[in-house]
Hints:
alpha/beta, 8-stranded mixed sheet, 36% helix
Amino acid sequence: MNPIISVCLAAALLPITGLAEIKTETIEYKDGDTELSGHLVYDDSLDGPRPGVIVAHEWWGLNDYAKKRAEMLAELGYVAFALDMYGDDKVTSHAPDAKGWMEQITGNLDAWRARAMAGLEILRGSELVDDNKLAAIGYCFGGATVMQMAYGGADLDGVVSFHGSLPAAPEGADIKAKVLAAHGYDDGFVPAEKVAAFEQSLDAAGADWQLVVFSDARHGFTNPNAGDYGIDMIQYNENADKRSWTMMQAFLDEVFAD
Length: 258
């Protein structure tokens, strides 16, 4: 097994140890008049610029889960920026609130992409980051967000969607990023016809893409706290979580080696 993968699998189960000096900086930034607050996470024991990875949160907002994923990326040697898509410290565990906030963002496609790109520019501008090696990962709403970044022509080496809504690429999309999508076979929020439209649109756009489907996996399968929300269609799946994270690592190794 690749030693990087071994380290990550251990990190998913254990707290941060003294092997790395993980630092978190809260970064205040703006998209137009909206005040945003993201988290830049990195291993302070490493020297020199390194690849940077955006983390786009679920529809619940920039909560501890998204921040934990940024820490896990930092443990792998990346600089991670957990961006803020809502502003005003909006975080919730109530689906109606989350749905409303998400719809405010997704209702305007150009504004949605611009909000995500504001976070990418923060990551790109960090002196810790090799700005020629950038990627983005996202969960649920965040998965759709990183796909929209790719569809908008963002200069990214790769994007990874974990249990995202799999929006279809628009006609004429200029997709520079390679695409990895991790999807649950039993995801009740994303019907089979939407999955098919996603695949067909990426083919039509000439994208380099891969969709991995996990059996017995519902929406939110990477989040150990998914069952706490009381929504039957959202459920954690340990196997799908671990396997998709391992696939992401191999994918990032590949796109950053090019």
